[in-house]
Specification:
Blueprint (H helix, E strand, L loop, with lengths): L1 H5 L13 E2 L5 E2 L3 E3 L15 H12 L4 E3 L3 E2 L20 H7 L6 E7 L14 E2 L18 E2 L2 H21 L3 E6 L4 H6 L14 H18 L5 E7 L10 H11 L5 E5 L18 H4 L3 H8 L6 E4 L5 H9 L4 E4 L1 H5 L3 H6 L16 H20 L9 H24 L4
Parallel strand pairs: 3-4, 3-13, 4-6, 5-6, 6-9, 7-8, 9-10, 10-11, 11-12, 12-13
Antiparallel strand pairs: 1-2
Bound molecules: flavin mononucleotide.
Flavin mononucleotide binds next to helix 11 and helix 13.
């Protein structure tokens, strides 16, 4: 174990406690970042409610240097989940200002996203996509409506929406935005040759498939203050045969490098399930930081700071990620379970947070149940409680109930024009 953790270690590897200065001028106090987790805590009109403030104060006090919010939707007619936050030109900025003020010592960035075709049929959301390729998740595919290929005007409108949301995040007091181009949402759909079958300037070559992402980044940069951070979350690979792969990621990182503060690397999509990693039944570095081997190949060429997220649950693994050449370490699940784990890690403890488990046999059901139990933990933290997480199966049942209530409210607000 120890020798494996030393592999590729650089003499100059930064410590977890080292500050990091980004190109926008923001200095992060340390190398640990709370990665994005969709909180599903929207109140009326998809605004943040007070539970989000409590949740982010808790993480801020737990020692991380940066917090990335769960994805915030740029278009209220297309939401990944009915209780997702939306920030658009019609939003009231006051609750967003309260949310931004939850960060006292860490840097709080808003992740902004458009789900594209990954919208639930029951929300009545518009399923837009580069091409008419439906979501394929086996028997669960029926929950996703058939997507409509985007027109040039839909594409221009979407670029503008990302820019508006970023500008509003800046005005509300967030330190930066992270544009979500991973995990199979709209920007990743354009990047993927399996979903993007277009023959115009947004399809075909990798450069054409990356055009929407690059235009979004440029439009966001043009609209925000010079000292406001801009980052991108990108897959190191989609883990689908013929999909976006490591070589593609290498080029896209190069094209982004002059205009972003950092690129966060993750992997997988709703169709490949790799986002949730592999069960860590063996304690090896590659099983723990499960994208490290693949994404590590991108570090040598990159001229922009890279962040690695996925499976990191203890200090020694986080240090090994820095030793491999990454500038930042992203942690999601472990910080839902134990929001103050970074305090121990920064003080030199290994402090492993055990991975959540479920004995369900079906892989997709198991992933859904674990995801639901993590969401329920976020909700508990938002209420100021820190009791043990609901058992995954119980969390799945609660999640279904909560989701159907949120769907009713979303549809009602949408149909009465309150959106
Ligand atoms: C409940 C939950 C919600 C998530 N929501 C988002 C999200 O909104 N945006 C995003 O980029 N990733 C999201 N993720 C993925 C995480 O950011 C991260 O990439 C993934 O969980 C692997 O990291 P981990 O092993 O530290 O959890 C979510 C993960 C979980 C568990």
């Amino acid at each position: 174990m120890t020798s494996e953790l030393q592999i590729g270690k650089r003499a100059t590897a930064p410590e977890l406690t080292s500050p990091l200065r980004l190109s926008s001028g923001i200095t992060l106090p340390n190398r640990l970042a709370k990665a994005a987790m969709e909180e599903q805590l929207a109140g009326r009109r998809s605004h943040p409610d007070s539970r989000l403030v409590t949740l982010y104060r808790t993480w801020d006090a737990g020692g991380v240097g940066m917090m990335l919010t769960g994805h915030v939707m740029v278009d209220r007619s297309a939401v990944a989940q009915p209780a997702d936050i939306v920030l658009d030109a019609t939003s009231d900025l006051a609750p967003f200002r309260e949310w931004a003020a939850a960060a006292r010592t860490s840097s709080l960035w808003m992740q902004i996203n458009h789900p594209g075709r990954v919208v639930r049929r029951d929300t009545g959301s518009r399923a837009l996509a580069p091409s008419a390729v439906p979501v394929d998740v086996g028997p669960l595919s029926k929950f996703f409506p058939p997507p409509t290929p985007m027109t040039a005007s839909d594409i221009r409108d979407t670029v503008e929406r990302f820019a508006v949301t970023a500008e509003l995040a800046d005005r509300a007091g967030f330190a930066g935005v992270e544009i979500h181009a991973a995990h199979g949402y709209l920007l990743a759909q354009f990047l993927s040759p399996l979903v993007n079958k277009r023959t115009d300037q947004w399809g075909g070559s990798l450069h054409n498939r990356a055009r929407l992402l690059l235009d979004v980044v440029a439009a966001v940069r043009a609209r925000v203050s010079p000292n406001f951070g801009v980052a991108v979350k990108l897959n190191s690979a989609d883990f689908q045969r013929g999909g976006f792969d490591l070589q593609d990621a290498r080029h896209v990182i190069e094209w982004l490098s002059d205009s972003v503060d950092f690129v966060e690397l993750s992997g997988g999509s709703i169709e490949s399930l790799a986002t949730a990693g592999h069960p860590a039944d063996e304690r090896t570095l590659e099983r723990e930081a499960y994208f490290l081997k693949l994404a590590g190949e991108l570090v040598t060429d990159a001229s922009v700071p890279l962040m690695l997220t996925g499976g990191i649950r203890r200090a020694r693994v986080a240090e090994a990620v820095l030793a491999r050449g990454f500038s930042l370490v992203g942690v999601a699940t472990a910080l839902a379970q134990q929001p103050d784990a970074p305090l121990g890690w920064l003080a030199g403890e290994d402090g492993e947070v055990p991975a959540p488990r479920s004995s369900l046999r079906s892989k997709s059901l198991r992933a859904a149940a674990i995801q639901a139990s993590i969401t329920s933990q976020l909700h508990d933290l938002g209420r100021g409680r820190s009791r043990p997480t609901l058992a995954p199966v119980a969390a799945l049942i609660v999640d279904q109930y909560r989701r159907s209530r949120a769907t009713r409210r979303y549809r009602q607000e949408h149909s009465t024009g309150q959106q």
